[in-house]
């Protein structure tokens, strides 16, 4: 109750920001080192920037002086986003490349293309998300939500990690990875969180599949944070809940969250700019320096579910995912 009231009132937490804070506000004072006049221009990659929270995240990062890479499956839509960002920030450098996160081959192709540009990489925001009402399979014959939201981002992170570690070492600027998750990860029960069933469910439920993929995003961040720490890499990884924003992904929940529920819950909805604030805060704030393996909501560290904090679950999921990717792509992965 107290938490809901704080949320509704937009009371600021220890970071100085709260549920009402916008992406522009949380990046206004904190990131002077990012301004174009600074020598070290940051390069940020934002998935899912062709709509909703991702578009706003890309816009604000570009406004703050970062070079922004937008991987998109629809390059026409991406070109429109680029145009609108450059209308506001004419000097913004925006790079568009094709990706379909639900396809291992496409993610691999994208990474080769990006790496061949020889650019640094400071920030990776794994933001793209999909909600599938009906059971659909990716070209790799994996359930579409899990393939897109979790596996595609896992592989993307894997293939870009050495570049991020190298960039951080050369620039002296901490690299940051952000997995955009959701509060809905709380709904997942441990007995339904089974890797083989998530790849190929026999009794499909769209909301459950979506929640499982969002739990996997947090477990990924937590396990990878432990690996990065063990390697002494100057790269952090955290998960965020952006808040509830009426974007494309919510509109896909037809029948589950109806318009009437939305009407009643309208006080809880965030604007897109408020929805992009937690990703932008974790990506740019000096206050999150060295913070890794955590879960953020409303621009503050927050609690995730017991299952999301379960180290053995995170480790098992990590091993199963790597083994799958290894098998499918014949990649040589370091255990
Ligand atoms: N909105 C909310 O209330 C809410 C709440 C909690 C968490 N989230 C999370 O926030 C993130 C952003 O969601 P949003 O609300 O901004 O949703 P959105 O407006 O539907 O945007 C989703 C983005 O993901 C991209 N995408 C989907 N499938 C893809 C694929 N196979 N390959 C490449 N890109 C793909 C979409 O590209 P196209 O333009 O090509 O479709 C779009 O750019 C998601 O991770 C979502 O789970 C949202």
TrEMBL record:
One of its GO terms (molecular function) is oxidoreductase activity. Keywords: Oxidoreductase. The keyword Oxidoreductase applies. It holds the Pfam family adh_short. The keyword Oxidoreductase applies. Belongs to the short-chain dehydrogenases/reductases (SDR) family. This is Uncharacterized protein. It comes from Camellia sinensis (Tea plant). The lineage of its organism: Eukaryota, Viridiplantae, Streptophyta, Embryophyta, Tracheophyta.
């Amino acid at each position: 109750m107290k938490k809901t009231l704080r949320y509704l009132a937009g009371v600021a937490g220890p970071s100085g920001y709260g549920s009402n804070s916008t992406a522009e506000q949380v990046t206004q004072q904190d990131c002077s080192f990012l301004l174009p006049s600074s020598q070290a221009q940051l390069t940020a990659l934002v998935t899912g920037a062709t709509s909703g929270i991702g578009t706003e995240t890309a816009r604000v990062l570009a406004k703050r002086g970062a070079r922004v890479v937008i991987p998109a499956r629809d390059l026409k839509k991406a070109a429109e986003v680029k145009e609108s960002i450059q209308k506001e920030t004419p000097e913004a450098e925006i790079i568009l490349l094709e990706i379909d996160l639900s396809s291992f081959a496409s993610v691999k192709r994208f990474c080769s293309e990006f790496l061949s540009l020889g650019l640094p990489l400071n920030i990776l925001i794994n933001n793209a998300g999909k909600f599938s009402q009906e059971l659909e399979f990716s070209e790799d014959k994996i359930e579409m939500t899990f393939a897109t939201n979790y596996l595609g981002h896992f592989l993307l992170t894997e293939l870009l990690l050495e570049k991020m570690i190298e960039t951080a070492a050369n620039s002296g600027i901490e690299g940051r990875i952000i997995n955009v998750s959701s509060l809905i990860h709380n709904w997942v029960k441990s007995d339904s969180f089974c890797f083989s069933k998530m790849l190929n469910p026999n009794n499909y439920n769209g909301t459950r599949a979506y929640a499982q993929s969002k739990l996997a995003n947090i477990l990924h961040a937590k396990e990878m944070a432990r690996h990065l720490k063990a390697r002494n890499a100057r790269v952090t990884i955290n998960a965020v809940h952006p808040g509830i924003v009426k974007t494309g992904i919510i509109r896909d929940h037809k029948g589950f969250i109806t318009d009437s529920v939305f009407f009643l819950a309208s006080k809880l909805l965030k604007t897109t700019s408020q929805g992009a604030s937690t990703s932008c805060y974790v990506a740019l704030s000096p206050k999150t320096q060295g913070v890794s393996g955590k879960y953020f909501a409303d621009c503050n560290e927050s609690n995730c579910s017991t299952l999301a904090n379960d180290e053995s679950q995170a480790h098992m999921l990590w091993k199963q995912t790597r083994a799958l990717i290894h098998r499918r792509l014949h990649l040589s992965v370091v255990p």
